[in-house]
Structure to design on (132 residues):
């Protein structure tokens, strides 16, 4: 059994009520009601760009998109090695088309390491949100 793959979701039932969920080949989306307010929002965990873009047609209101995107936005997202300009351009164009903003990463620069003595570090895990 591998050390990665799959999607896990969890929430506190005292704070959020699951309203509905959508299961796709590469994603799980859930709509929640916040128990402390009238806020209703969507959360999607996914690493597949087209599926997320397609979901945008279904999701209305506030939406959080979180996950291992397995790509970087700029050279600053990697401590060493080559940066594929085509890959970063495609990711940034997709983010622009999705009209989302990124939640800033606090207290560190990277989210993944290959755990070697001279590690490769990257920032591939991200959280985005719309402004609806």
């Amino acid at each position: 059994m591998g050390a990665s793959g799959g999607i896990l979701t969890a929430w506190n039932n005292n704070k959020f009520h699951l309203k509905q969920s959508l299961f796709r080949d590469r994603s799980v989306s859930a709509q929640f009601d916040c128990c402390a307010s009238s806020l209703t929002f969507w959360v999607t965990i996914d690493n597949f760009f087209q599926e997320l873009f397609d979901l945008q047609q279904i999701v209305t209101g506030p939406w959080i998109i979180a996950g291992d995107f397995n790509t970087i936005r700029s050279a600053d997202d990697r401590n060493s090695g080559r940066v594929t300009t085509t890959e970063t351009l495609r990711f940034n164009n997709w983010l622009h088309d999705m009209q989302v903003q990124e939640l800033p990463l606090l207290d560190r620069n990277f989210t993944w390491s290959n755990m070697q003595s001279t590690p490769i570090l990257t920032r591939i895990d991200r959280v985005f949100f719309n402004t609806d």
User: Anything to note?
Assistant: The chain has a mean pLDDT of 86. The CA atoms of residues 49 and 70 lie 11 Å apart. Helices lie at 49-55, 85-98. The two ends are 40 Å apart (CA to CA).
